[in-house]
Amino acid sequence: MNVGLLWFDDSKRPIEVRAIGAAGAYLAKHNRWPTLCQVHQDHRPAVVNLDPKTSMRIVPSQYILVDHFWIGENGEDNSRGKP
Asked: Do residues 11 and 41 lie in contact, with contact meaning Cβ atoms separated by under 8 Å?
């Protein structure tokens, strides 16, 4: 991921719900849905559907702090059109 958005959410909602909130902020800034969300390593991998054609992978990383989300587009998905 070359470009991304660092998002902080310390609410007690499920990780998928918080990642969708971060995806909405990314969409507002870049006018594209993100495809990848890196989270703290204590979380499990997941896939969330953002709209009927777009999904986002949630991937644990040792480099992301608790309650932070590094969200953006995976390299091979950069050719996708706008939503």
From this structure: no
Per domain, the residue ranges of the chain are 4-72
Task: Output the tens digit of pLDDT for each of the chain's 83 residues.
Answer: 778 999 999 999 999 999 999 999 999 999 999 999 999 999 999 999 887 888 999 999 999 999 999 999 987 544 444 44
Instruction: Answer for the pair 59, 68: CB distance below 8 angstroms, yes or no.
Output: no
> DSSP letters along 32-66, please?
S---EEEEETTSPPEEEEEETTEEEEEEEETTSPT
Whether pTM exceeds 0.90: no
Task: Please tell me the distance from the alpha carbon of residue 61 to that of residue 43, in angstroms, as a whole number.
Answer: 9
Residues in the chain, overall count: 83
Q: Are 20 and 13 in contact (CB under 8 A)?
A: no
Gap between the Cα atoms of 7 and 37, Å rounded: 10
